[in-house]
Write a structure and sequence with these properties.
The protein is α/β, with parallel strands linked by helices. About 35% of the residues lie in helices and about 25% in strands. Bound molecules: flavin-adenine dinucleotide.
Length: about 450
């Protein structure tokens, strides 16, 4: 393998998803020279949007939390994100029947899911949830909180369904109650936005902003080695032989991949982060339809099944041909995936909600086993706040949706990217140990 050396950057960012692009922009805005190394032929990672015959599919239903860290940072950057808040008026699926969801005052009054006393208990439970102070809650599981605070089993079912939808995760025995309640409060208070043009509009604007600020973005660069010596990062090696000598590296890939790339990672905290990670996995059936068989049935939450349906076209422009883009999700718990069975379940859900939908299909995308996040706040973590520093290796930082300090989903990617960049900016670029020629490591 011919080795080509690159020098002169203050920092290298591994991965050009949301976390990588935001980390690079933060560093570049602070005057640092940065290179983003992305293994695929495009940036965006899991936030890309695919154009299939004129209809735009995110990789599964994506909603931007308006009260979240990602939206805050994107607004600060001045990104133009058109689209609307979808209405939460919708249906519940219970016992293979579709009924109105007690999610808004009218739905609450008319829903057969609960009797009058159940409705009063739901209002009380929602009140407790809204008033809860997530930051001061002791370390406890979501189930422990729900069982202690919500006594009616049907109200608890509805509560879990809300939590599942807001966090994209189905793991109440392990999920930490505090961050989940914060996320649900955020969803109820500020709502979410579906974006015209899909999340690609975020990716494109972040990429352009990064380039305007002087960031170099190199595609088709798969990092295989994060090199370090005497407790200090020295650089990264790409699969194609490119060797980058750099004193700061932010890895935005999964904890398992960061571990694999780092020599002697077993002697670092990376091992614990990898071993303790609980990825959240979902199957997504994304459809573009000529019309919805049941008009205005735009939104449904499974109460006794971990499924979710949402018509994104009700709030966002996602097609050039008038097709309606809908996303169906099955939330999988740990180790539960069966792609064929999941697809059948999602199709059956669609048939229950929209009989005859098959005749209306313009295009479809089925994504089984999607990693929604590589990890989330749970009780199996030794420390609740991950990163951004890897204490054993100066100059190595982590960011991404698993590097959470209580944030969830893309908010964790954005918040952790900013934390990692700020750490580098604050620390300046001091090298502890004398530099060996990098070429010696690569061979
Ligand atoms: C089905 C689904 C639905 C979702 N819905 C929502 C939602 O509604 N709201 C929300 O906030 N979030 C949602 N998310 C989560 C959100 O999409 C992700 O958290 C976010 O996009 C992750 O960004 P990231 O930069 O941390 O990671 P990624 O997007 O995974 O970026 C990592 C990048 O690193 C690159 N890479 C990997 N290995 C290497 C290597 N060795 N060398 C170089 N580059 C490498 C990858 O190609 C990728 O581009 C959803 C995710 C999924 C899958």
């Amino acid at each position: 393998m011919e080795i080509r050396e690159i020098q002169g950057y203050d920092a290298a960012v591994i991965g050009g998803g949301l976390a990588g692009l935001i980390a690079a922009i933060e560093l570049a805005k602070a005057g640092r020279s940065v290179v983003v190394l992305e293994k695929s032929s495009h940036v965006g990672g899991r936030a890309i949007t695919i154009n299939k015959h004129g209809t735009l599919f995110n990789l599964g239903g994506h909603a931007l939390y308006l009260g979240g860290e990602a939206n805050g940072i994107l607004q600060e950057y001045g990104l133009k994100l058109e689209g609307k808040k979808p209405s939460s008026k919708g249906s519940a699926i219970w016992n293979n029947q579709v009924m109105s969801m007690p999610g808004d005052p009218m739905g609450l009054l008319t829903s057969p899911l609960l009797g009058w006393s159940g409705k009063a208990k739901l209002i009380k439970a929602l009140g407790k949830m809204i008033k809860a102070k997530p930051a001061t809650l002791p370390l406890m599981s979501l189930r422990a909180w729900a069982e202690g605070e919500i006594h009616d089993p049907m109200v608890r079912h509805i509560f879990y369904a809300l939590c599942r939808t807001a966090t994209y995760t189905q793991d109440p025995d392990f999920q930490r109650a505090g961050p989940v309640l914060k996320q649900v409060q955020r969803a109820l208070k500020s709502g979410v936005k579906y974006l015209d043009g899909g999340w690609q509009t975020i990716v494109d604007q972040l990429r352009d902003l990064a380039i305007q600020n002087g960031v170099s973005i190199l595609m088709n660069k798969t990092i295989v080695d994060i090199m370090h010596d005497s407790g200090q990062v020295r650089g990264v090696l790409c699969k194609d032989g490119t060797l980058l000598e750099v004193p700061n590296v932010i890895s935005t890939v999964s904890p398992a991949d960061t571990y694999r790339m780092t020599k002697e990672a077993e002697k670092t905290i990376l091992k614990r982060w990898k071993d303790e990670a609980r990825p959240s996995i979902a199957a997504s059936l994304d459809l573009a339809l000529k019309r919805l068989p049941v008009a205005k049935r735009d939104f449904a939450i499974g109460v006794d099944q971990p499924v979710f349906f949402s018509n994104h076209s009700r709030a966002a422009k996602l097609s050039e041909n008038g097709a309606i883009v809908v996303h169906l999700t099955k939330y999988n718990g740990q180790g539960e995936q069966d792609p064929k069975a999941d697809e059948r379940m999602l199709e059956q859900t669609m048939s229950l909600l929209h009989p005859g939908w098959e005749k209306e299909v313009v295009s479809r995308q089925y994504l089984p086993n999607m990693t929604v996040v590589h990890d989330y706040p749970h009780l199996g973590r030794t420390e609740q706040n991950i990163g951004p520093i890897v204490p054993e290796i100066q100059g190595l930082y982590v960011a991404g949706d698993w590097v959470s300090h209580g944030e969830m989903l893309a908010d964790a990617s954005a918040a952790s990217a900013r934390r990692a960049a700020r750490h580098i900016i604050g620390n300046q670029l001091e090298l502890g140990a004398p530099i060996k020629p990098l070429i010696a490591y690569a061979r």
